[in-house]
Amino acid sequence: MTNLKSKLQDDLNTAIKERDELRSSTLRLTLSAITKEEVAGKEKRELSDDEVQKVITREAKKRREAADAFAQGGRPEQAEREKAEGEVLAAYLPKQLSDAELEQIVAQAVEEARAAGSEGPRAMGAVMKIVNPKVAGQAEGGRVAAAVKKLLAG
Questions:
Q1: What is the spatial distance between Cα 86 and Cα 97, in angstroms, rounded to a whole number?
Q2: pLDDT, tens digit, for every residue of 106-154?
Q3: Which of 6, 15, 11, 14 is nearest to 34 (CA)?
Q4: Cβ-based neighbours of 97, under 8 Å, separated by 6 or more
Q5: Which of 38, 56, 117, 133 has the largest count of CB atoms under 10 Å?
Q6: How far is CA 61 from CA 93, 102, 108, 139, in A?
Q7: Residue 50 CA to chain centroid, in angstroms?
Q8: DSSP at 43
């Protein structure tokens, strides 16, 4: 078992012992998503810590989207629950980049793309190829794309 997955399992056991319903249900769902990912495909395999982190990121994104949907649908209690679950999962993810840090990384990538001959809005793909490995797991794709578009347009 990977370090991250075993940490999730240990934290689940602790949450169950402490009768922390929110934490235990969130970790159960996340561990089942990890297991589902492990058995997907032709043969069972064990996920690396990076792959486990991607699953946790995906689960956290689902919680944010659900919270927004519940808030718009007039169900604030359910939206709060989804936000709380997202916060539980955020503890297992790397710290997110601030807007200033993200903008700085994107600005460097835009300069690299310009040096390689790509300019204007058509350089989006080239810039994204440079930026994505640098910010993997530390910024959501939508935030990154918006920052790239803003700098390429300006």
A1: 17
A2: 888 878 877 777 677 677 778 888 888 888 777 777 888 888 888 777 6
A3: 6
A4: 105, 135, 138, 139
A5: 56
A6: 12, 19, 27, 12
A7: 11
A8: S
Distance set, CA 104 to CA 21, 31, 38, 99 (Å): 41, 35, 36, 9
User: Going by C-beta distance under 8 Å and a sequence separation of 6 or more, which residues neighbour residue 105?
Assistant: 97, 131, 134, 135
3-state secondary structure of 75: coil
Pull the structure tokens for residue 76: 């604030």
Structure tokens given for 63: 């919680």
User: Where are the alpha helices (H) located in 73-98, listed in sequence order?
Assistant: 76-90
Furthest CA-CA distance within the chain: 59
